[in-house]
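Session log. Operator J.P. requested a structure for one protein chain; no other inputs attached. Running the standard single-chain path with token output.
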Amino acid sequence: MGLDFGAKTVGVAISDPLFLTAQGIEIIRRERENKLRQTLARIEELIQEYEVGEIVLGLPKNMNDTLGERAGLSLAFQEKLERRTGLPVTMWDERLTTVAAQRAMIEAGLRREERAEHVDRIAACLILQSYLDRTRESRSI
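Structure written below.
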């Protein structure tokens, strides 16, 4: 499972059974940033439904490779996920995934309003796909 953790949303992606491709499945929304109980409960439901064995969580690093405030919030979310689900949570560099998601939607001809509706789910796909590609490469070496 790939997650793009944002201030008020979490984009969710799942891999296929062979771990080749990532598919976006939903965006979990919350009213306030620090209200995570329902978000965590929904993630647990998805873990059961899709028989997830590992979570890949986007780590929003700065372009100079440092960790800022958003990265700190993501690391705190990682701890909550690990405690609540009992699954390993791998942090994955998500720099430019939102930019890439926006670019893909512009190229597909989606209007600005439509792009806002899908960007987090697509960013979660990009995070998970990058992880799947990298782990597949490292296994074949």
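Operator note: Residues 15 and 22 are 4 Å apart (CA to CA).
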